[in-house]
Amino acid sequence: MIKKVTSTVFFFFDHANYRDSFFHLDEELLIKFRNREFETVYEETKLRLKQYHDEEISLLLNFYNSISAHRLKKTDYRTCIVVLRQLSEKYSSTFYSPSMIIRIKSAIANLYSENKSYTHSRKVYEELIALDFESEELLLDRIRILYNFSKTLLHLQDSLTALEIVEEAIQQSLKFKDMSLLGQLYYQQGFCLENLNYDYETIKQSYFKANVFFELLNMEEYKQIILKNKAHFLR
């Protein structure tokens, strides 16, 4: 009985250490990728893929390797999407990880949008927002997904659906008290309202709120954009 309990305890700690190592590796690579250190990410993941034989870690490394390879123009976006789709299927069937599935599908949708394949991008975003966002952390990810989806819809000149998507994202942001994207969302709302020929005062409210959040969060680049393009709504 003591032996059984001891082995269970060791299994628990081994698993806990494994998850810590996994998340540390993910965070390390994510920071470098966000800092546009694509060459470093590509070379590190290429090397580590030869060292690691754990399948879940290999999937993570392949994710970063494929998107960094594309950023370095070593592969075209279609090849990158094929690899990402394979990884998504693997995560769905073998390692059920909603956060990774969402991250991979978001990368696919963004790649389509960046390359002006907006109809394909829309389809992936529709798949994304149909997923079950189980935790509060994933619900916050959904806000960013909705924002990016609205941009794709505007490229497709579907301003009405874009407005509905933006307003859902605004409500989610307010519900979870997350201000990080509220400025951009209110700006997007104003843009949709303009396209749909809403009255001046309604549009003005959206741009005014956007500017308030840009000021509050010291988002200088966005402050300059709204002042340059929408100053007549801020008087």
Chart the SSEs and their pairings.
Layout: H1 2-34, H2 38-51, H3 55-71, H4 77-93, H5 98-114, H6 118-129, H7 136-155, H8 159-175, H9 182-195, H10 200-216, H11 220-230
Helix pairs in contact: 1-3, 2-3, 3-4, 4-5, 5-6, 5-7, 6-7, 7-8, 7-9, 8-9, 9-10, 10-11
Q: How would you portray this structure in words?
A:
By secondary structure, the chain is an all-alpha fold. The protein has a domain at 141-235: Serine Threonine Protein Phosphatase 5, Tetratricopeptide repeat, CATH 1.25.40. It contains eleven helices and no strands. The chain has helices at 2-34, 38-51, 55-71, 77-93, 98-114, 118-129, 136-155, 159-175, 182-195, 200-216, 220-230. The radius of gyration is 21 Å and the shape is elongated. The N and C termini lie far apart (77 Å). The relative contact order is 0.05.
Q: Output the structural class.
A: mainly alpha
- Round the Cα radius of gyration to an integer and report it: 21 Å
Q: Which residue ranges are poorly predicted, with pLDDT under 50 across at least 5 consecutive positions?
A: 1-13
Task: Give the total of beta strands.
Answer: 0
Shape category: elongated
Terminal Cα span:
77 Å
The percent range for strand residues is under 5%
Sequence of secondary-structure elements: HHHHHHHHHHH
Known CATH architecture of the domain at 141-235: Alpha Horseshoe
Number of helices: 11
Mean pLDDT: 89
CATH topology of the domain at 141-235: Serine Threonine Protein Phosphatase 5, Tetratricopeptide repeat
Q: Please identify the top-level CATH class of the domain at 141-235.
A: Mainly Alpha
Largest sheet: none
**Percent helix among the residues?**
over 70%
